[in-house]
Design brief:
Layout: H1 27-48, E1 59-61, H2 65-86, H3 97-105, H4 132-136, H5 155-158, E2 173-180, E3 182-189, E4 195-198, E5 202-205, H6 214-222, E6 229-235, E7 240-247, E8 253-258, H7 263-269, E9 277-286, E10 289-294, H8 296-302, E11 316-321, E12 325-330, E13 336-339, H9 346-352, E14 360-368, E15 378-382, E16 396-401, E17 414-420, E18 426-430, H10 436-442, E19 456-458, H11 460-487, H12 493-515, E20 521-522, E21 543-546, E22 552-557, E23 563-566, H13 573-579, E24 593-595, E25 601-603, E26 628-631, H14 640-665
Parallel strand pairs: 1-3, 7-11, 12-16, 17-21, 22-26
Antiparallel strand pairs: 2-3, 2-6, 4-5, 7-8, 9-10, 9-11, 12-13, 14-15, 14-16, 17-18, 19-20, 19-21, 22-23, 24-25, 24-26
Helix pairs in contact: 11-12
Length: about 675
């Protein structure tokens, strides 16, 4: 039984459990001790400013106000550190010369020089070093560096689960919860002596204790004072340790990191290797000895994190100089610039790039050696026979695409389109040796309304050639107009105005001609009586249009009423022009031409008997369905007044010359 009455205790009083009955002679002494204990507890309660709980509850253990203030100060330090971290701006990766050279091979160009007063433009690289995206795109989480112990820790460290073999150290914050006969919720920091102080219990040495053993160590110490309780201890805020990152890194120096940080955490803190730094020669040095060598490629390519060990205070992470570099471009899953170790081959670099893409030509690749730039620079390697060839610094590998490679025409399947008067218009894939006849047969044949004479057959390769020739002709025409404008001299203001108007008209004409795009049509030279198309082989992208038989003929140009007119049997081109009102006064009747439905052109200058006609030179040429007659306007036609004025000036100049000769003779 207890010597002190439990009903007289408070939440801060200590419950003493006795294991053996006490003699009656000692009862007054025990009562005196219990009273003193209650008095001291009550005084401590008043000094701490705590409100006593109900009488008869469990013992309540609280920390001092000094400890709470220390914790709040630590929290404010963390807030300040986090604010400083957010104010840290991004640092961009600065590529090396080889990286710029490889990106130049891909068509990348650096940004132009910045305009004074404006921020410089940044252009993303097309090809990066393997690992540069992870290490050098730093943000506020990894970018801040502080010399004090108040440095912010990265979320990847503070949110990690504490491993069982983690050793408690000075500066760690412990969260201790006790319930049962004792009620406590404590946040205690390990002091420089490696201890924590639990109220009513005293100091507990925890430095060097494994995290897995923390509950048992603290429970054993609390059990020396109390009984009938349960305890749970965990880690709150972790201590900071100072480590050093040296070598080829953008930001070498001392860093304060979490006690859970590893080699990768330190690398990210410093921005990783610079353009001159190695991803594969990273050393962890402890007490002036090389503890381990870390290869970042093992983590990036294989997921092997075994060499990423935890750091301790005063550790040094040293980044060595970059090793030999090669680039792999083309049809791979990830074109990259990779760093080599001795004896690595083409197959190893292909693995670093993720292997071939689905459209890659797996039978060959090209190898460009910068070391042979004065001789043969590019060689072709056969795969897989030469996949074991070793590479050297500066090599560039290119993988071909089997999709972009163009097969010979006789091996290609053709994608062609047919429209108009066929049974099943649409797009078809034909065997390599197919022709127009096969295309029509595949589309179900012609309908009764098919107008074979008016068939339009266009080809993409022909369109490209026509466009090139058309642009060349326009350039020649523009040059000719410019030359004529520079060589002609105006003798009067009227001539100057006329030349200016003519030059303006020439410019407008060139602009309108540039808006016209060739269609790529191939004239099949069909005759009106033909009932089938020529047996021409088709190509990729061909388009065949077979229209219905038209019943009209179009007349346009310098006529009184241009439009489409119903065609009558036996009508000539001259008859169709008369239906449009005939040529106007400014029409050039000697240059009338007819565009046939089959794509051919017939002009008045080709007709031998045209000069006997009444209005045009095409009176004997029969009009066909789908014809388009164009009557051009005479461009160089002058009025009678203009011609009389020019002759008057000529005669006037001739008279002045004759008078001058007569004067000289006299």
């Amino acid at each position: 039984m207890n010597d002190c009455d439990p009903s007289a205790t408070t939440a801060h009083s200590m419950t003493l459990t006795m294991t053996a009955p006490k003699p009656r002679a000692r009862a007054p002494l025990v009562a005196l001790l219990c009273g003193l204990t209650l008095a001291f507890a009550h005084a401590a309660e008043i000094n701490n400013g705590d409100t006593p709980p109900e009488v008869g509850g469990p013992v309540r253990l609280t920390t001092s106000r000094t400890q709470n203030d220390s914790n709040s100060g630590s929290a404010s330090n963390r807030i300040r550190s986090g604010t400083a971290a957010k104010e840290h701006s991004k640092r961009r990766y600065k590529p090396g010369e080889f990286e710029l050279y490889v990106n130049g091979l891909m068509g990348w160009e650096p940004a132009p020089p910045p305009i004074p007063g404006q921020e410089p433009e940044e252009k993303e690289l097309l090809i990066l070093r393997l690992g540069a995206e992870l290490m050098n795109e730093t943000n506020s989480e990894f970018g801040s560096k502080f010399s004090s112990e108040e440095s912010n820790f990265s979320a990847t460290d503070t949110e990690r689960q504490i491993p069982p073999d983690y050793r408690i150290g000075v500066g760690d914050e412990l969260q201790i919860s006790i319930w049962g006969a004792v009620d406590a919720d404590l946040r205690l920091t390990v002091d420089r002596g490696g201890r924590i102080v639990i109220p009513r219990v005293g100091p507990v040495l925890v430095a060097g204790v494994r995290y897995a053993d923390l509950d048992s160590v603290i429970s054993a110490r609390v059990g020396q004072v109390f009984r009938n309780f349960q305890l749970s201890a965990s880690l709150g805020r972790l201590r900071g340790i100072r480590i050093y990152v040296t070598g080829f890194t953008p930001r070498p120096g001392a860093y304060t990191v979490s006690s859970l940080s590893t080699v990768v955490s330190a690398l990210m803190k410093a921005g990783g290797p610079s353009a001159a730094g190695s991803f594969r020669q990273i050393e962890l040095r402890r007490e002036n000895k090389i503890l381990s060598q870390f290869d970042m490629y093992d983590l990036l390519l294989k997921g092997n994190k075994s060499a990423d060990i935890a750091l301790q205070a005063e550790d040094v992470v040293h980044i060595g100089p970059v090793g030999p570099q090669v680039a792999i471009l083309g049809s791979v899953n990830k074109p990259v610039i990779a760093e080599l170790k001795p004896n690595e081959t083409v197959a190893d670099v292909l693995a670093m790039a993720g292997g071939f893409s689905p459209v890659a030509d797996r039978s060959r690749l090209t190898l460009e050696r910068l070391s042979e730039r004065n001789d043969r620079r590019v060689v072709e390697l056969g795969l897989p026979a030469e996949s074991g060839q070793r590479l050297s610094n500066g090599d560039v590998l290119r993988i071909f695409s089997s999709v972009n490679a163009t097969l010979p025409q006789y091996k290609q399947f053709k994608r062609v389109r047919i429209e108009g008067e066929v049974a099943r218009p649409g797009e078809y894939i034909l065997p390599p040796s197919s022709s127009i006849i096969d295309l029509i047969r595949t589309a179900g044949g012609l309908t009764p309304q098919a107008y074979i004479f008016g068939t339009e057959f266009t080809r993409e390769s022909v369109r490209v050639a026509q466009q090139e020739n058309y642009e060349r002709a326009l350039r020649d025409l523009e040059t000719e107009f410019t030359r004529n404008g520079l060589t002609q001299k105006a003798l009067s203001a009227d001539q100057a105005a006329t030349q200016a108007t003519r030059a303006s008209g020439s410019i407008r004409l060139i602009e309108r001609l540039r808006a016209v795009k060739p269609t790529g049509r191939i004239v099949l030279q069909l005759r009106m009586a033909e009932t089938s198309l020529p047996d021409i082989a088709v190509e990729e992208g061909d388009h065949l249009l077979i229209p219905a038989r038209p019943t009209t003929v179009g007349v346009f140009g310098s006529v009184f009423n241009g439009g489409s007119y119903l065609l009558k049997d036996g009508a000539s081109v001259d008859d169709i022009v008369r239906l449009a009102g005939g040529p106007t006064r400014n029409a050039d009747t000697d240059s009338i031409f007819v565009l046939r439905a089959n794509g051919s052109v017939v002009s008045a200058r080709q007709s031998n008997s045209g000069w006997l006609s009444f209005n045009t030179a095409l009176s004997t040429l029969p009009a066909l369905p789908g014809d388009t007659v164009f009557v051009p306007e005479e461009l160089n036609k002058t009025s009678f007044g203009q011609e009389a004025k020019e002759w008057t000036q000529i005669l006037y100049q001739f008279g002045l010359g004759a008078a001058a000769l007569h004067t000289l003779k006299n």
